[in-house]
């Protein structure tokens, strides 16, 4: 596990202003400290730092492009090997009182005091309470009980490349916050004519990279991820892994970029979904929140209420809030 934080970088005045607003909003929401400039350039494990002193920024992160002028670093973040983590969770669950069923839920009904899940193997599970956590397929299940949440889908790609210059050594999970255009030179286009179709294409911000320990290419390597299609799609797509180094998948999220964690039908049906952008690390906390709530042992913060009014969040559809932010 790495605890180097998440850092957003911008070379634009506009990007810097947006990061400052976001930093203040997050400090207010989380009630955690917001450090400014040099006080933020330290190894920390809590709060966030907003840095607009470019000289100090480049001194602290020497591999950054000289064009970068400001940064917003969230300290209480990191990354881990998800495969290993999921395996350890599975073993722990198997050693406890869990019962596993491997099937697809095709129908969801509720009535009287019970919720019924009909599975594709012809069996059914009848329960007092059900938590829907079906990722990009949550909405399809909700439609069975006539609930429509404004869940949106974005395409998201991941590629693992060799890190020949070790440029990410010691860096946080790094996000380029600005939008950018793909521009290939003549030599690159001659070597790979297919790139011509991408020439000049504008990509949304939040392309992000981190050091990687994947077995795919061996060490060291760079894992790069980006959301390349920010327009919500009508339908979710199935995952379609392409070879061993590139994966494309679906980011499932609400327009305000906050997950759905809470009650849908009082005392019966709950949801823990639209977690994209929050990832595996937050999903653990989300699961604990909803499990406790479901067992009447705690409340979930109202900002995650699945039935919240999205209209009340003024800039929710701003393109700058897409991707990871
Ligand atoms: C390309 C890509 C790269 C990513 N990389 C990272 C990363 O490096 N780090 C990180 O933290 N996050 C990453 N994420 C985000 C992360 O995958 C999500 O935040 C996380 O998986 C969301 O968890 P979830 O439990 O809500 O949904 P999911 O992980 O999608 O889990 C939903 C589960 O429900 C099951 N299901 C769906 N419908 C049914 C049904 N009808 N019956 C039974 N089961 C059903 C599915 O099979 C699935 O197992 C990435 C996402 C993408 C697309």
UniProtKB/TrEMBL annotation:
The keyword Ribosomal protein does not apply. The keyword Oxidoreductase applies. SUPFAM superfamilies: FAD/NAD(P)-binding domain (SSF51905). PANTHER family: FAD-DEPENDENT OXIDOREDUCTASE DOMAIN-CONTAINING PROTEIN 1, SARCOSINE DEHYDROGENASE-RELATED. GO terms for cellular component: cytoplasm. It comes from Xenorhabdus doucetiae. InterPro entries: FAD-dep_OxRdtase (IPR006076), FAD/NAD-bd_sf (IPR036188). Residues 45-291 form the FAD dependent oxidoreductase domain. Keywords: Oxidoreductase. This is FAD dependent oxidoreductase. One of its GO terms (molecular function) is oxidoreductase activity.
């Amino acid at each position: 596990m790495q605890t180097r934080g998440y850092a957003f970088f911008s070379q634009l005045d506009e990007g810097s202003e947006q990061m400052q607003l976001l930093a203040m909003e997050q400090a207010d929401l989380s009630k955690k400290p917001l450090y400014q400039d040099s006080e933020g350039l330290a190894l920390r494990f809590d709060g966030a730092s907003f840095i607009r002193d470019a000289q100090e920024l480049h001194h602290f992160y020497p591999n950054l492009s000289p064009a970068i002028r400001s940064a917003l670093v969230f300290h209480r973040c990191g990354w881990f090997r998800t495969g290993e983590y999921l395996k350890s969770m599975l073993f722990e669950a198997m050693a406890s009182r869990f019962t596993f069923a491997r099937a697809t839920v095709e129908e969801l009904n509720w009535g009287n005091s019970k919720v019924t899940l009909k599975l594709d193997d012809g069996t059914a599970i009848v329960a007092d309470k059900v938590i829907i956590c079906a990722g990009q397929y949550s909405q399809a299940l909700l439609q069975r009980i006539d609930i429509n949440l404004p869940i949106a889908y974005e395409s998201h790609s991941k590629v693992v490349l060799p890190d020949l210059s070790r440029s990410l050594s010691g860096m946080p999970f790094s996000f380029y916050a600005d939008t950018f255009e793909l521009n290939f030179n003549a030599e690159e286009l001659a070597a790979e004519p297919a790139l011509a179709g991408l020439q000049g294409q504008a990509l949304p911000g939040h392309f992000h990279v981190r050091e990687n320990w994947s077995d795919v290419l061996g060490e060291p390597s760079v894992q790069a991820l980006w959301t390349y299609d920010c327009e919500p799609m009508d339908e979710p797509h199935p995952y379609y892994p392409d070879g061993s180094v590139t994966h494309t998948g679906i980011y499932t999220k609400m327009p305000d970029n906050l997950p759905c964690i809470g009650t849908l039908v009082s005392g019966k049906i709950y949801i823990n979904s639209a977690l994209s952008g929050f990832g595996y690390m937050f999903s653990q906390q989300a699961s604990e929140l909803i499990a406790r709530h479901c067992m009447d042992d705690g409340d979930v913060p109202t900002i995650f209420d699945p039935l919240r009014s999205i209209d009340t969040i003024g800039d929710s559809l701003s393109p700058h809030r897409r991707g990871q932010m």
